[in-house]
Each structure stands twice: as C-alpha cells, then as structure tokens.
Amino acid sequence: MAQYVAFRPGIEVLAPSLQSFFEAPGRSYTPMIMKIMIKHGLHQLMSIDWLPMQLWLDTQREMAATIGEHALFALGKKTPEVAVWPPGIDTMEAALASIDVAYHLNHRLDGEPMFDARTGAMKEGIGHYLYRADGDRRAVVVSTTPYSSEFDRGILTGTARRLKPAAEVSLDQTQPTRRRGGDSCTFLVRW
Predict the structure, then answer these.
(1) Phi and psi dihedrals of 188, rounded to 5?
(2) Which helix H or strand E contains 90, and what residues bound it?
(3) Nearest-5° angle of CA 182, CA 183, CA 187?
(4) Measured between alpha carbons, how far is residue 37 from residues 22, 45, 55, 126 in Å?
(5) Which of 159, 160, 163, 174 has an alpha carbon 20 to 30 Å from 76's alpha carbon atom?
(6) Are 131 and 139 a contacting pair, CB within 8 Å?
C-alpha cells in the first residue's frame, strides 16, 4: 500500500482535529500552508465538520513535496492534543494501546463513526495502529494506515511525550515501510 492513498471511498476525517495544520509546522510555513489549503479547498476548515480522507491525504502529499516531511512530523506531533481520545488514559502502555481506538474515533465511513464507544465495535477500512510491549519502557507499534511514515511517527511521538517528555520514537528501518512500498511501518518507542 502506498502512502497518501485512501483504502476506499466514503472515508472522512474529523475536521476540527485538523485545525492544528495551521499551528504545527511553525509560523514561517503559514503562507505555504495557506496556499496548499486554498488549493485543496480547505481554507475554511473551521466551518466544516468532516472532510474526505483522500482530500486530506492529497493535502499532506503536497505539503511533504512543497515544505518537507518534517512538517508532517510536526503536524503529527500536534494531532494528539486536538484529536478525540477514549477516556482514562494515564499510562504509557494505555496511551500507545489506545491510539488505534482514537484513530477510528476521528474517522467515519459513509457518515457512520468507525468506532462505537458504547459497543466497542470497530469498522475496517482505514488500517490500524497495532501496539505490543517490547520489554521495560519499550514498545513496538505497527501502522497499517495510508498516512505518511513521518506523520505517523509524529502521532506516536506526540502521544508518548504527553506522558513521558523524554520519549523517543524511531522508524524501524529493518522492517518494511510505506515509503519503500511496504504495507506497514514499524515504530520503536522508548521512554
């Protein structure tokens, strides 16, 4: 699976969680970000609730090509601050394990939420963040989403640093990555 390609039509992203797009990379990028946003029709982000996932992915692709992937990393780091999360997250393990639920809470398919907090039912169609402990203060998270490797690394970094400011996240280059045409990216988290 390639980066920046939605797995199916009808997937939407919760727009208010994307408002961090304007703040994350830094003020020096604001004019370029606004130009990209206007080009993709996202300049009125505050007035819409949901937007097509593919449109958001296209915007991110252009941002990476124009500004650089470091901007997507910065955007990803900001995302945990503004996204909808399940309640009761107070440990690193719980935070990393809950990323998949949060991811599904912030997406919907054909107008229906992709995670039902009441029943715990999760819809397929956007990939997953699969967490597993890997020793003392270490974890592995495998992402099978269509987002870029750097955006995912930013999300994991932002999530981990909310609980442990010195946490580090790296892309495991010994495993397949989406940027090299793989179906997933594997991230190593240490805190």
Answers:
(1) -105, 125
(2) none
(3) 85
(4) 9, 9, 10, 23
(5) 174
(6) yes
Q: Is the pTM of this model over 0.85?
A: yes
141: exposed, middle or buried (C-beta count within 10 Å: 0-12, 13-18, 19+)? buried
Compute mean pLDDT per 10 residues along the chain, 191 residues long, and list them. 89 76 60 79 71 92 92 89 90 97 96 94 97 97 97 97 97 94 96 98
The amino acid occupying position 185 is C
Angle at 17 between CA 14 and CA 23, to 5 degrees: 145
Who contacts 141 (Cβ-Cβ below 8 Å, separation ≥6)? 96, 99, 129, 130, 131, 132, 156, 186, 187, 189
CA distances from 13 to 51, 77, 87, 89, 118 (A): 5, 17, 20, 22, 20
Q: What is the 3-state secondary structure (H, E, C) of 54-85?
A: HHHHHHHHHHHHHCCHHHHHHHHHHHHHHCCC
Q: DSSP for 108-160?
A: EETTEESEETTTTEE--SS--EEEEE-STTEEEEEE-SSS-HHHHHHHHHHHH
Structure tokens at 94: 């719980």
